Known about the structure:
By secondary structure, the chain is mostly beta strands. It contains one helix and 24 strands. It has a five-stranded antiparallel sheet, with no helix packed on it. Strands 6-7-8-9 form a four-stranded antiparallel sheet. A hairpin with a 2-residue loop joins β7 and β8. The radius of gyration is 20 Å and the shape is globular. It starts with a strand and ends with a strand. The N terminus is likely disordered.
Amino acid sequence: MALTATGACSQKTITADPVTSECTPLETRQPNAPDQKPTFAGQTRACGMTSTSAYQVEVLAKGLDKPWAVEPLPDGNLLVTEKPGRMRVISATGAMGEPLTGLPEVVAGGQAGLLDVALSPTFATDRTIYWSFSEPRSGGNGTAVARGVLSQDNKSLTQVKVILSTKPTYNNTMHFGSRLAFGPEGMLYVTMGERSSLETRPQAQHMNSHLGKILRITPDGAPAPGNPFIGQSGALPEIWTVGHRNVQSSAFDMQGKLWIVEMGPQGGDELNLIEKGKNYGWPLVTFGEEYSGQPVPNAVTAKEGYESPVYYWDPVIAPSGAQFYTGSAFPEWQGNLFVGNMKDKRLIRLKIENGKVTGEEHLLADRGQRVRDVKQGPDGALYIVTDQSNGELWKVSPKR
């Protein structure tokens, strides 16, 4: 039996645009990096806004072990990954299936494990799914992407094949990135981290490394036609964009544009609009500071030739998971971007107008759980998994 809680807000949405008028920002705490200033008005601390939509939260399932991703299926059931290496189907009413058989071995621990899952654009006819994971290798591990066919009884995966093993191999358990998103042209976009260490961090700018990049591949795992660095000497052909720290949120908007929310240093979490071949700066251009409180070595907040974030958070939010809302269940939310907030344990709603964030709302803070992923189901509800050893699966739908 699903457990139900309700929530509603009665204030009218604030629509003031911080670029052109005054408003009350949602964030009023002391910044992590108070000496840094935004590059343009409205780049941080957007207007606070409040939904008028009444909603309810149902706890569909409990007892999940560090769930990392939720992917709604066309029939209303939900695929959920658990970081230790399990994937299972949970029914629309909360019945928890057994772990799927057929998955390859994963490295688990720290940020490593079984990570994202995405449906093939042709899932309705071929039942193919894709997932990312920390792949064990000689000398260490690395982010990999596999695909397989989900059985009709939702119990197993067959025809399993690893289609991408990123390089180089490295031996730690940090910054795997790993969000998967199919673009409107049918290509798969894979977000990568730079593995966190001072040794690997510079590779976010190195074209012979997948670390700190967004990759674009075909459904078979080959470099996608039209990638910007195909044929460039010393450049890996899968690379789409460069200069990322650790991207665990990605989503396409209603116009087919790719947005990411990137885990930055302390005071430097970023919302970026992704454009072919661009350089997003890390570790040369960034807001924030090291988590030690020291400056990021030799970094500046803006520089010609590098993309500035559309928006950044200072203090940080530890973002994971993203979804542009397109459903009819909550008309007020159409076109808004939802982002998981693990640090402050809530769900963030952003209003984006003309390429700038003009409003921010924090939801579900009363539940006190780290929001790891958020996805929209075919019913227009939002489905959420929480990042803890006794993780939960939630359904956010209009209040009945």
